[in-house]
């Protein structure tokens, strides 16, 4: 079976329709797209489907997504020769996936140890910060705000170790963490193996182990949290390879 013959996934259908509007001039460079919520209602699909379609279009160089400022149409990038849009998306994703995998390896080594030490050294003040961040993640519907709370949660674990060098190492990764959080959350949603609630539960379980001063469990839960993202990343890679082979 060829790629053209296989049924389109929902996000591909949305992506193709938005791209058609761009090609026909109904969406021009500089135009702002409707919100994820409005697009989901318009296409009668889930928000994760819209996010994946927008992510693909962004990877093609057709969208500019400003955190907290909306999503805007960009002028198509000039190319030396014709390249299928999905091939361009696949190539760009491969680079992003490799960087993400390297960062996850660093995070496994660094954060599993931080979680164990935080469980031994955490204070009541640390727990209050964790609880506030978890509540922010639970209550907010602003994806950028949730991503920020997510990064702060992981940085707070380093702070709770009472080791300034570990905190400095985590803070040095802050910008990379912000970017990777977007990809990580996208992986969970796009693979349809999780939801915002499930991600929240991952963080709650880590917090509970730290609050209970169980260093071994805190380390294990952090490692499991990161391993699950790696698993979805590997499954996506395998799925993309299968589609290119069919």
Description:
- One of its GO terms (molecular function) is DNA binding.
- There is one protein chain.
- The protein has helices spanning 10-23, 36-43, 47-59, 85-121, 124-139, 143-160, 164-172, 174-190, 196-211, 215-245, and strands spanning 63-66, 70-73.
- The protein is mostly helical.
- It has two domains: 10-73, Winged helix-like DNA-binding domain superfamily/Winged helix DNA-binding domain (Arc Repressor Mutant, subunit A); 85-245, Four Helix Bundle (Hemerythrin (Met), subunit A) (Up-down Bundle), CATH 1.20.120.530.
- A two-stranded antiparallel ribbon has the order 1-2.
- It is elongated, with a radius of gyration of 20 Å.
What is the topological layout?
Blueprint: H1 10-23, H2 36-43, H3 47-59, E1 63-66, E2 70-73, H4 85-121, H5 124-139, H6 143-160, H7 164-172, H8 174-190, H9 196-211, H10 215-245
Antiparallel strand pairs: 1-2
Helix pairs in contact: 1-3, 2-3, 4-6, 4-9, 4-10, 5-6, 5-9, 6-7, 6-8, 9-10
Give the proportion of residues in helices. Answer: over 70%
The major beta sheet can be summarized as: 2 strands, antiparallel
Helix-strand topology string = HHHEEHHHHHHH
Report the total helices.
10
Morphology: elongated
CATH class of the largest domain: Mainly Alpha
Which regions are unreliable across 5 or more consecutive residues at pLDDT < 50? 1-6, 79-92, 190-194, 241-246
What's the average pLDDT? Answer: 80
Widest β-sheet, arrangement of strands: 1-2
Distance between the termini: 6 Å
Number of domains: 2
CATH architecture of the largest domain: Up-down Bundle
- Tell me the number of strands: 2
Radius of gyration: 20 Å
CATH topology of the largest domain: Four Helix Bundle (Hemerythrin (Met), subunit A)
Protein name: HTH-type transcriptional regulator LutR
Organism: Paenibacillus albilobatus
Keywords: DNA-binding, Transcription, Transcription regulation
InterPro entries: GntR_C, TF_FadR/GntR_C, Tscrpt_reg_HTH_GntR, WH-like_DNA-bd_sf, WH_DNA-bd_sf
């Amino acid at each position: 079976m060829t790629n053209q013959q296989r049924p389109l996934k929902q996000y591909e259908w949305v992506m193709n329709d938005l791209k058609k509007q761009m090609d026909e001039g109904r969406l021009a460079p500089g135009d702002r797209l409707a919100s994820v919520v409005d697009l989901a209602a318009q296409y009668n699909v889930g928000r994760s489907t819209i996010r994946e379609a927008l992510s693909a279009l962004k990877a093609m160089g057709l969208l500019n997504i400003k955190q907290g400022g909306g999503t805007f149409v960009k002028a198509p990038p000039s190319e030396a020769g014709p390249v299928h849009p999905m091939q361009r998306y696949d190539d760009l994703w491969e680079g992003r996936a490799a960087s993400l995998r390297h960062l996850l390896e660093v995070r496994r080594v660094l954060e599993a140890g931080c979680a164990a030490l935080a469980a031994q050294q955490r204070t009541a003040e640390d727990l209050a910060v964790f609880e506030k961040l978890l509540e922010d993640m639970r209550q907010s519907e602003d994806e950028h705000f949730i991503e920020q709370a997510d990064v702060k949660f992981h940085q707070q674990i380093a702070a709770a170790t009472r080791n300034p060098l570990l905190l400095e190492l985590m803070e040095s990764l802050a910008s990379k963490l912000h970017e990777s959080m977007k990809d990580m959350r996208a992986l969970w949603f796009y693979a349809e193996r999780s939801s915002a609630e499930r991600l929240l539960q991952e963080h709650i379980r880590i917090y509970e182990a730290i609050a209970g001063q169980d260093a071994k469990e805190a380390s294990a839960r952090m490692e499991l949290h990161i391993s699950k993202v790696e698993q979805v990343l590997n499954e996506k890679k395998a799925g993309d390879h299968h589609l290119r082979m069919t």
